[in-house]
Automatic annotation (TrEMBL):
Signal peptide limits: none
Stretches assigned to the HTH lacI-type domain: 3-47
KW Transcription regulation (keyword) present: yes
Source species of the chain: Lactobacillus helveticus (Lactobacillus suntoryeus)
Protein name in UniProt: LacI family DNA-binding transcriptional regulator
Length: 335
């Protein structure tokens, strides 16, 4: 298929420049426009079909979307960002962070692709604009536009089902769920995948879903509010265990339970999701499903690199399984 000489001829750059770029010469200094043009022609001429072992080093943008209103929720995405920065430094890549999608759109020509981190809503019209100028993008943990961009996400349906199965294996059949509402896309409120999966899977197992409490945002404050609501309604009829949609909510729920002298794990057990640092230090420490952020970031960069050299392939949505980290809020006897 396409050779370095053919790419050089069509691009108007020397074979030496083309070769140094495609072989990741760290001392090569060229503009982003030059890099984009050479890579585009390399794709067009099918260069990568005969050089699949090669791995390019793209210049990438980070689109970082957090609201800075909820510390624990922000910490999760901050950790993802730090994992990305560490990996970029390890692999000697170039990256610039953007906090506003319009700024990234204006500067799109400087990059071969982007990684999206964070959960702040983005208008679909903005995502379409971004795709027109920078179509190579991978969102981590969320994907507001799966028809436009790739994504690497934790396998939350698997996690919820795994939690329910684990409770049942340990003789627990009265199971509650506490969660927040899902994301908004283009002003449309979506249901959270964890709560949907919980209700559907509990029904398939023939189990009662009356202890399901889903309302509000993912925040410690809302977790506290939901904990109080649950106790006001079910204090004399608590389930044997709760699955809580995130550690951020679980911290607030645990605070509410402690204030009302509900003993965890004696009166009810708790499983949470995320395995953030804080859950080791609350009382009792929370058993939580770990989301391997480093692996998600590594997978996101590999997926982006593959997309850059295979821009016409179908979009990818990868779900990565979680693993349970056991602490005092629930210690399973049967796994």
């Amino acid at each position: 298929m396409g050779t370095i000489k053919e790419i050089a001829l069509e691009s108007g750059y020397s074979p030496a420049t083309v070769s140094r770029l495609l072989n990741n010469d760290p001392n090569l200094s060229i503009t982003a426009d030059t890099k984009n043009k050479i890579l585009k022609i390399a794709n067009k001429l099918g260069y990568w079909e005969d050089h699949q072992e090669k791995k390019i080093k793209p210049t990438v943008a980070l689109l970082y979307r957090v609201n800075h209103k909820e510390q624990l929720q922000d910490e999760y995405f901050t950790s993802l960002k730090q994992a990305l920065v560490s990996t970029v430094e390890r692999d000697a890549l170039k990256m610039k962070t953007f906090y506003d999608i319009e700024d990234l759109i204006k500067n799109a020509s400087l990059f071969q692709g982007f990684i999206g981190v964070g959960a702040e809503p983005i208008e679909n019209a903005q995502l379409v604009k971004l795709h027109k100028v920078l179509p190579n993008g991978v969102f981590v943990d969320t994907n507001p536009a799966p028809e436009l961009f790739d994504s690497i996400r934790p396998n939350l349906p698997f996690t919820v089902k795994n939690a329910i199965d684990l409770f049942i294996k340990n003789g627990i059949n009265k199971i509650g769920f506490i969660g927040g509402v899902g994301p908004k896309h283009d002003h449309i409120q979506e249901n959270d995948l964890r709560s949907i999966t919980f209700v559907e899977y509990m029904k398939t197992r023939g189990m009662d879903t009356k202890w399901t409490c889903v309302e509000g945002t993912v925040s410690v404050e809302n977790g506290y509010k939901l904990g109080k609501m649950v106790l006001a309604k079910y204090k004399n009829d608590l389930p044997e265990a709760f699955l809580i949609a995130s550690d951020t909510l679980a911290v607030g729920v645990l605070q509410a339970f402690n204030e009302e002298n509900v003993n965890v794990p004696k009166d009810t057990k708790i499983l949470s999701i995320n395995n953030s640092n804080v859950v080791k230090y609350v009382s009792p420490p929370l058993s939580s499903f770990n989301i391997n952020q480093k692996e998600m970031i590594d997978m996101a960069l590999d997926t982006l690199t593959h997309l850059i050299i295979r821009p016409d392939r179908p979009k990818i949505d990868i779900r990565m399984n979680t693993n349970l980290v056991v602490r005092k809020s629930f210690v399973p006897q049967e796994k």
